[in-house]
Structure to design on (147 residues):
């Protein structure tokens, strides 16, 4: 996992140039939809309301890495070792996702606030969309990079 300021996104060779170029052009006014950025990579821009941590679940992807960037609002994203988790919903290859129970007590977390990004490699367990004290509407871009 890579966690850094947006201004440093060009420092990581793991992140393809076409993804970096798309991220550098992001504004909070971008339309919510799917954007194809290569033959294999795409970006989902969406709005949603953050949720209490008990209503969010860890997820893991096998084929795609995520670059998650908040365009408005603030949210918490937890992460932990996959070996700490128990499967809730088995891997669905058509969606490239598996979900895990909230049984782990100790996790690390990052605050996504629009100034930073997180690059989540395949098989790294992460729990996005969490609120802090209150649920708020956020706008997020998730760049999906085929690995």
């Amino acid at each position: 996992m890579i966690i850094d300021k947006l201004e440093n996104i060009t420092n990581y060779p793991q992140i393809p140039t076409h993804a970096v170029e798309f991220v550098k052009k992001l504004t909070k006014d971008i339309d919510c939809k799917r954007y194809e950025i290569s033959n294999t990579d795409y970006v989902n821009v969406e709005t949603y309301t953050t949720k209490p941590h008990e209503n969010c679940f860890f997820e893991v992807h096998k084929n795609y890495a995520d670059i998650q960037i908040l365009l408005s609002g603030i949210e918490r994203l937890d992460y932990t070792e996959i070996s700490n988790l128990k499967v809730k919903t088995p891997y669905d290859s058509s969606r490239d996702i598996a979900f895990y129970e909230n049984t782990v007590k100790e996790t690390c977390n990052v605050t996504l606030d629009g100034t930073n990004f997180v690059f989540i490699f395949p098989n790294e367990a992460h729990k996005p969309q969490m609120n802090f004290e209150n649920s708020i509407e956020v706008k997020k871009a998730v760049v999906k990079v085929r690995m």
Summary: The mean pLDDT is 96. The two ends are 14 Å apart (CA to CA).
